[in-house]
Amino acid sequence: MSATFASPDSSAVPLYIIEQDVPDTIPDSARTWADAADFTGGAGATLAVPGPEGGIAMALVGAGSEASRKRSRFDVGSAARSLPAGTYAIQTDLSPARMQEAALGWLLASYDFDRYRKPAKPPAQLIAPASIDAARIEAIAAGEFLTRDLINTPASDMGPDELEQQARDLARQHGADITVTTGDDLLAANFPMIHTVGRASTRAPRLIDLRWGNTGPTLTLVGKGVCFDTGGLNIKPAGSMGLMKKDMGGAATTLGLAHMIMALGLNIRLRLLIPAVENSISGNAFRPQDILTSRKGLTVEINNTDAEGRLVLADALALASEESPDLIVSMATLTGAARVAVGPDLSPFFTDDDTHAEALTASARAVADPVWRLPFHDPYETMIEPGIADLDNAPSGGMAGATTAALFLRRFVDAPYIHFDIYGWNPSAKPARPKGGVGMGARALLDALPKLLNL
């Protein structure tokens, strides 16, 4: 598995990207072979064309029709897994955006989570097309691979301490500074809700704080790091607990995005905050009807211990706001309501800034990382006000669950703010995105940063 392109090689197999019909520019012998194989250029279809000596003379990969491309992405890149092993060089002229998608998709398709099994067969390698920024694509792919690895690793090997080590490794790689506040030290440092959610676990809760960069606008990323979520005393049923190793998908995605930013050397002062906990059950677990006092001083009535992600994020967001950064972005696998609203393929986000929303939407389209804006609907504020405390962590009624969670988080932020409520998981394999953990929204954010931060 590699997030890098192959070195230039004069013996590389020519690769032609075909849109529905094999063009006249392809040699007659290849056209004859394609006709015999009934190859029509359907999205993701591949064909190796033999040479006179029995080797591969060229390869064809289908891009599909314009209509089919609206229904899928990275189809060309999926050829990395379907063509024979070897090195390939694209010969077809494509628009910059489509060439970038093809090249990135090729790298993303080479991903294989093989920590617990024998690796899959090596993917075909691609020489970076001359028209793309190869270093940028490689940095993006490496960040995505990091995110996928973290989400795919089970909680037995990816608890708060292992997540901290991943952050430390990333800091060491890029020369960033990192501090971690752990266990009862969270109380002394005034992170009461992070401590409360994580105290029932045998693995201590913690707040990871990474800083990088000395110049430029300030960006603070906050990622939900619930390494496993039983639901606490409001325990989840088995069907809902099965995927809870992915409940740290927000932290995994922000770590991947942080790698992209640092690897590309962007002129940004970056801060990354990850509250890392397990929501477990023991004699000291927090209870329904408990009232917690947050770092910001707001009190929170607990009406469901399974709505814990917003609690740990709230303390981290309050800390982030104390420095008044130019932008705060939180990312979390926060609510099932978001998944029900838009499904597993879209990244829902919330912002009060129309300019930020437009920039994100345009970037998402440009880099094939779809997002969808959901509303900070102010009239729903009353739904998170229980009367006995300032805030309710789980309003009754089941209505607008994603919006009420986002409104809850907004109460702790005093800076320009974007919140992502992502799923972080592919239920079934798709081109360049195998079944399992996946980054969502990070590439759209990376592309939009120049507009979001006036770089």
From TrEMBL:
Keywords: Aminopeptidase, Hydrolase, Manganese, Protease
PROSITE patterns registered for this protein in UniProt: CYTOSOL_AP (PS00631)
Keyword match Protease: yes
Keyword Protease tagged: yes
UniProt-listed InterPro entries: Leucine_aapep/pepB (IPR011356), Macro_dom-like (IPR043472), Peptidase_M17_C (IPR000819), Peptidase_M17_N_1 (IPR048816)
First and last residue of the signal peptide: none
GO terms assigned for molecular function: aminopeptidase activity
Residues annotated as domain Cytosol aminopeptidase: 304-311
Pfam family, one: Peptidase_M17_N_1
CDD domains to which the protein is assigned, alphabetical: Peptidase_M17
Coiled coil: none
Gene3D superfamilies attached to this UniProt entry: Leucine Aminopeptidase, subunit E, domain 1, Zn peptidases
Assigned protein family: Belongs to the peptidase M17 family.
Protein's name in the database: Leucyl aminopeptidase family protein
Native source species: Loktanella gaetbuli
